[in-house]
Amino acid sequence: MTTTDLGFVHRFEPGDASVRPLLLLHGTGGDEADLLPLGRRVSPGAALLSPRGPVLENGMPRFFRRLSEGVFDADDVRRRAADLAGFVAAARARYGLPAPLALGFSNGANIAAAMLLLHPETLAGAVLLRPMVPLSDAAPADLAGRPVLMLSGAADPIVPAENAARLAALLTAAGARVEHATLPAGHGLSQADLAGVEAWMAREAPPA
């Protein structure tokens, strides 16, 4: 069921308390229903918490403002990351959840990366699909061994390979255990992404 409380329009699906919950973060133009099937597939039984991005760009929901393609409003990134971290804390209290594992695509992956860098206590780890560096001047975080999977596309016209590599280096320097793979794909998701996420979840997802 979609609800509007806790500060974000969101969907919550209860799950098995022994499985780490997922925080699902959609890409530009998506909504709170977009990644539910992916979440159910890659982590059967997990509780699913899926907010809708509160920023509109030409009517399309996003999690923060951008000035142009690939150029982000740094002040808005910081503000929205704090707001989303607050929502996660409120949702954890409401629904009785441990810290979730983020699963984000594109803009959703970028806000998840921003939370890792700015509010590392919020997430138990993350799966970042087609992410970019969200902030160039984020202070070093302490990610203390948190697992992070990054999947980039070799033919992605939006995310430069150098940018994705820089994000992997930033997260590694902050203490995360980063696995970064580049797949034979563009910006959209492929069967290789699904297989890669499923294998990583089975191997690396932290227990609840």
TrEMBL record:
Name this polypeptide is given: Hydrolase MhqD
Secretion signal span: none
Domain of life: Bacteria
Keywords, sorted A to Z: Hydrolase
InterPro entries: AB_hydrolase_fold, LYPA1-2/EST-like, PLipase/COase/thioEstase
Keyword Hydrolase: yes
GO molecular function term, any single one: hydrolase activity
Name of the encoding gene: mhqD
Domain Phospholipase/carboxylesterase/thioesterase: 102-197
UniProt similarity note: Belongs to the AB hydrolase superfamily. AB hydrolase 2 family.
Record Pfam families: Abhydrolase_2
Organism in which the protein naturally occurs: Methylobacterium cerastii
